[in-house]
Amino acid sequence: MENLAYGSRKRVIEELAKGREIAIQLRRVLNEGGGDNNNNNNSNGSSSSLVAVAAATPFAEKLVKEVLMSFTNSLSFLNDPACESHEVVSDLQQIRDTNSKSEDSLESNCKSSIVSSKERRGCYKRRKTSQTWEKESEFPVEDGHQWRKYGQKMILNAQYPRSYYRCTHKYDQGCRATKQVQRIQEDPPLHKTTYCGHHSCRNLQNPEIIVDSVSPSHDHSSMFLSFDNSLPTPSKQDCPFLSLSSSSVKRECKEEEEIAIPDLPPSSSSLNNDYLIPSELTFDDDSQRHHALLSTTLDDVSLYDSAELDDVLGGFLNEIR
DNA sequence: TGTATTTGACCCGC
DNA sequence: GCGGGTCAAATACA
User: Fold this and answer.
1) Positive or negative, the Cα torsion across A197, A78, A64, A14?
2) Residue ranges near strand C (C-beta within 7 Å)
3) Between the CA of A169 and the C1' of B1, what is the distance in angstroms?
4) Rounded Cα distance, A224 and A215, in Å
5) Domain ranges of chain A
6) In the complex, which nucleotide's C1' lies nearest to the CA atom of residue A164?
7) CA of A118 to C1' of C10 (A)
8) How far apart are CA A46 and CA A38, in angstroms?
9) Which nucleotides of C are covered by protein (CB under 7 A)?
10) What is the pLDDT tens value at each position of chain A, 321 positions in all?
11) Where is the WRKY domain (predicted)?
12) CB neighbour class for A49 (10 Å; exposed up to 12, middle 13-18, buried from 19)
């Protein structure tokens, strides 16, 4: 964010602020419409709240649509090549190219294109420091993704070896996500997991949306989202990037659910369809839970219960500022 | 037999 | 030159 030109940065802040205000309105609407289930547990509460929710839904949809529009605009501003960090461009470009060029890049990264398999050992282009974030937990965290261990090393001044994992779909889907797990201490056991890069793969094992992030104490530059693109791509009628549709999507509430600023798609000028940012709005009236789902053909971002929107957007603003 | 893990070698950034 | 990240052959496992 530090690299943002002042004008674009201002616009981003304005858009996010606008989105936040709209989200606050939305929260009120949803709460008034029966979002507060705890107060509607009497015999008539459920049906009446459903009616209220149904009545409020069109307006709520409109509000959420505006929220999503704001986010989309913000993203498009951030996609301005002048604003986008070199790092992200490079990283995403590599992701984009991976599927079609994985073999080529492997070769091109070698000093010699004609080498034996034995000589190719260790022939790779080490990624420059990319966006990372860390989690500490008593046990290595189950984050819903499939990982394959590809290395382990003793680290200087570290008591325990560090394990290296890559996404199982590195080769079949070109996913470049990796993580490192290192035990920090024995008793009580404590592991630090460092994630590097985000998943561009479909997570077939666990289709639910996983949001990886950092605690507030972490540097915001390392904030990241982990996405899942297993959901259908909505149309893009409402704006070049945005559309609304309806489906039923439920999200499991996880203990460590956090929302983070996603890394950005390539600049809009170079966008191909894979990187457009449509969005999807979901209202699950039956369960009286409200969700808005932002999805991209590459990634999906899920939001939430209405009460979370304020926090989420407020967090975005704080991060920007 | 196919897949995952282990482990030493290799390469790159600092 | 050193330390850390990745590769890939060898090995383990289901």
Assistant:
1) positive
2) A 106, 117-118, 120-124, 126-127, 150-151, 153, 155-158, 162, 164, 166, 178, 180, 196
3) 21
4) 11
5) 86-98+130-320
6) C5
7) 13
8) 10
9) 2-9
10) 434 444 555 555 566 666 666 666 666 666 665 443 333 333 333 334 444 444 456 666 666 566 655 555 554 444 443 333 333 333 333 333 333 333 333 333 333 333 333 444 544 555 555 577 888 877 766 777 889 999 999 998 888 999 999 988 887 777 888 899 988 887 788 888 888 887 777 655 444 333 433 333 333 333 333 333 333 333 333 333 333 333 333 333 333 333 333 333 333 333 333 333 333 333 333 333 333 333 333 333 333 333 344 444 444 444 444
11) 136-200
12) buried
Residue A318 contacts by C-beta under 8 Å, 6 or more apart in sequence? none
Query: How does strand A190-196 pair with strand A280-284?
Result: unpaired
Q: Is the CB of A122 under 7 A from strand B?
A: yes
> Nearest nucleotide to A132 by CA–C1' distance?
C5
Decide: CB of A119 under 7 A of nucleic strand B: yes
Is the minimum distance from the CB of A153 to strand B below 7 Å? Answer: yes
